[in-house]
Amino acid sequence: MKLWWRIVLPVILVAGVVFVIVVFSSATDKDPEEVVVVKHTEYRSPFIPDSVAFAGEWLPLNRFDVKEALDRELLSNAYFHSQTMRYIKLAPRYFSIIEPILKEKGVPEDFKYLAVAESGLNPRAVSPAGAVGFWQFLRGTAQEYGLVINSEVDERYHVEKATYAACDYLLKAYRKYQSWTMVAAAYNAGPTGMARQILRQKSESYFDLLLVEETGRYVFRIAALKLIMENPELYNFYISEDEKYPVITTRIVEVDGAVEDFADFAKEQGINYKLLKDFNPWLRQTYLKNPGAKKYVIEIPVLEKVES
After folding, report:
1. What CA–CA distance (Å, rounded) separates 171 from 13?
2. Same domain, residue pair 59 and 100
3. What is the pLDDT, as a whole number, of residue 10?
4. Which protein family is named in the record (predicted)?
5. Are residues 201 and 262 in the same domain?
6. Which of 243, 250, 267, 298 has the smallest set of CB atoms within 10 Å of its CB?
7. Are both 209 and 174 inside the same structural domain?
8. Burial group, residue 59, by CB count within 10 angstroms (0-12, 13-18, 19+)
9. DSSP letter (8 states) at residue 24
10. Which of 210, 243, 276 is the C-terminal boundary of a domain?
11. Which of these ranges, 30-34, 99-103, 142-146, 291-295, has the smallest mean pLDDT?
12. How much is the pTM?
């Protein structure tokens, strides 16, 4: 080793030791209140109650496969923060429409969470398979249950009318299965797919059937959404009432003829075209010819007047 390096190296080592001592001393000499404590985010398994019911039917959580399936959906939704927070915020606006209809038709209220699973409470939702709206109806099924679909109108986008149609579909399925969990599964898989698996596996219990992944997870996803949305703070969602999206008051305008231009129509009603379509997404064109003179009910949001 060269002589100069033998001299410099000890100096560097001593300087390093002194630096560490000085830094350590300055940190420990600080007032305890001035010390910054870095907290790490903790991720914990979501809470699973001892008993969970969907539409009055208890999930057999004593079975490991059932409990783990529910845990999977709780993990997926409890930690998909932005999406689940939006569901919680949207719930008052849309549940206020569908809850009374479910009650009127005799469908368990828990099926409002099926709508969350289907469309994310988005009236304009369209699936890759062409299922449309809040309840994700395919064209043929929607028409079978009385929804109008033509070049100008598509009532699959009409939350109220589509909810009535969904109730009729669900009630028909219940008469067949006598089980609301099977009804929910059949809503996802379709009656033909469920019939095939029931015959093949010789079981009519959702929890005993081996189904395609989407349907096999479906009822557990609905149950998980119910648990989280009914008890958001248990899953670390802290959303105050004033942060939720309010129910917007609307007034009704009946139309039984043609509307040449909905942009002009909107201005006549004191709103803009965007708001008109937001509240009436079932109107699919910029006009309505309505050759059959059918009566349509158009919702107009009542806007608060801004003082100048």
Report:
1. 82
2. yes
3. 54
4. Belongs to the transglycosylase Slt family.
5. no
6. 243
7. yes
8. buried
9. H
10. 243
11. 30-34
12. 0.84
Residue whose pair of structure tokens reads 């109220």 in the numeric block: 160
Q: Centre a 10 Å sphere on the Cβ of residue 202 and count the other Cβ atoms it contains.
A: 8
Residue 144 tokens read as 């079978």
Residue 152 and residue 236 in one domain: yes
Same domain, 191 and 106: yes
Q: Is the model's pLDDT at 188 over the cut of 90?
A: yes
Query: 297 has which bridge partners?
Result: 254
Bridge partners, 301 (sequence order)? 250
| Residue 25 forms part of a structural domain | no
- Local confidence band at 70 (pLDDT 50, 70, 90 cut-offs): very high
Structural domain contains residue 21 = no
Least confident of 29-33, 126-130, 225-229, 230-234: 29-33
CB 256 within 8 A of CB 291: no
The verdict on residue 202 lying in a domain is yes
Domain count within the chain = 2
For residues 181 and 290, membership in a common domain is answered with: no
Task: Judge whether residue 22 has pLDDT over 70.
Answer: no
Specify whether 61 is located in the same domain as 207: yes
Please give the full DSSP string across 244-256, using - where no structure is assigned: SPPPPPEEEEEE-
* DSSP code, position 42: -
**Residue 166, both tokens:** 């969904």
pLDDT at 304: 76
In the prediction, which pLDDT does 42 show?
A: 78
80 lies in which domain range?
A: 53-243
Q: Is the pLDDT of residue 152 over 90?
A: yes
* CATH code, 207: 1.10.530.10
Provide the sign of the torsion angle of the four alpha carbons 153, 156, 159, 162, taken in this order: positive
244-283 pLDDT per residue, tens: 999 999 999 999 999 999 999 999 999 999 999 999 999 9
Pick from 238, 254, 124, 119: nearest CA to 188: 119
Alpha carbons 180 and 219: distance in angstroms, whole number: 10
